[in-house]
Amino acid sequence: MRYHIAPLFCRPWTINGVTPKLIESHYEHNYGAALNRLNAIAAELEALDLANAPPHAVNRLKQEEMAALNSVLLHELYFASLGGDGRTLPDLMAQAIARNFGSIDRWRQEFIALGNALAGSSGWVLLTLVPRDGRLINQSVTDGSQGIAGAIPILALDMYEHAYHLDFGANASAYVAAFMRNIDWNAVQGRYEDALTVKPPRPLVQKQFADVPAVTVDEVKAMLESGVPVQIIDMRPRHYSAKAQDMMESAVWRDPERVEDWIGDLSKEAPVVTFCVYGFHIGCETARTLRDAGFDARYMAGGHYAWKATNGPVKLFDSAALA
Asked: Which of 17, 60, 207, 314 has the fewest C-beta atoms under 10 angstroms from its C-beta?
């Protein structure tokens, strides 16, 4: 498949403090070279006899393809980031940056610091949206590092010397300052709005327990830290618990097959949190049984292992409870 060149996203003569010659050279010689290299690699891959090609040859080409494609995409984003008044942010973008970084000034300081850190070196500084949490993050990407998986870049600063040397020589900090003055925040906001529509990986859905509310590990921790009375019940099956070495510090173990024997020990005045090994079947089923009996019961998503994975406090399992 052939990749086609994208026209310049900015008007070179409008960039304050940057000559059109620099933009033209950057577009023609660096972006153009990356695109031509990408097409050459794509053609070589298409012609490859995969049934007989050595694995290392395939791997080399795929690594080169990734590097060239990243260069093409980030150059396009870089040019699309220029052409505005970098001092003024539209409301939605200003609110998003302040929410994620504490303030616009703090975002600027971090972004500029990442750019200046690459002076004399090479790489990119990116403002990206991570769909997993809907969070904006600055990141520095170099040839030897990886970008954040699944993150969507909405603003890019090219810190390779070819991006500034014609105008600024070795004065990379002056180039970074010029870039900041020329950010097209309306275009950045448009990309931010588009990025917000991208969903994170879909979670496992247990349709049979759609009516049973869940509580996250972090929410359970917050309840415990606040001193809110909560009854936490370890519902891991007896055959599993007989081999268990630890359990959640604030929990008591109860046999999920004998709910009728211990349900009378619970109070309807305090919420109940149930959990099993992974937060799937048994914890959900018991929470439903308790809700049907009038308790404010929920299951803890992720179960015992989610609690341990977030460094939740544990204690030795009380084997006497199995008697």
From this structure: 207
